[in-house]
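Meet today's protein:

…
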Amino acid sequence: MISVLNSVSQLAAENALASTQASLQNSLTQLSTGLKINSGADDPSGISIAAGLGANIAALTQSSQNASNSIGMLQTADGALSQVTSLLNQAVTLATEASNGQLTAAQSTAADTAYQSILSEITQIGAATNFNGTAVFSATPVTTFTSDGTVGGTSTVSITTSALSSTTLGLNTTSLTSTAKAAAALTAVTTAISTVAATRGTIGASVNQLTADTSVENTEVTNLTSAQNNVQNADIGTTVAKMTQYNVLEQTGMAALSQSNQAEQAVLKLLQ
């Protein structure tokens, strides 16, 4: 049947061409963004999964940074305590010398002056050592918060480095002005060395724990990023192949539409 009111073939060609052009535009968008999900309409479920993975990745990345900052603070503390240990070793030498009983009064005074200078230096280290503007040695715990972006995936690690001074080490009342006092000072300094060593051991354990946490978090970030890529990233090779296919279909669709128009023009010849 020949009709001029409705051309089914033309409508079919137009619909097919519109569908092809939409698919071609989608392929071009994927190639330009590198993503196969560029709107919720592309994949409602996929965009939800990708967004959730993105939140997990962001939380873990910042958690790793939080742990790294705490590691930096603890390493700063350990470095300062290393200096304190060296100073205490000097104090041991002075106290041992002053305990011998063979020093003159002037020599004892000189030894005590050097000893008190060491104690002052230790107190100064405790007060002046800071990390990112915050005092490193404090009775207030340093809290490290980590999270994987889920309600149950949070943890908090509290670390206390304790205040550091000649007073906290039990040395503020010691002196080398007599052999008896020097002997007492030697005992106190030896105890202080043990205290500092124990603190450094605690710091080292905390650094190891945070380092392990950071390693786990970085591994999780890698795995989640891979999963997110699988969900939202375009397969360039496949997308290019589809784009080539749609380009061909667009050309054939236009040719079909043109042929349909020519068929309608043939109706006019019947009226001539």
Summary: The chain is about 70% helix and 5% strand. The domain at 44-232 is CATH 1.20.1330.10 (f41 fragment of flagellin, N-terminal domain). The mean pLDDT is 83. The helical segments are 8-33, 44-98, 105-128, 179-232, 236-269.
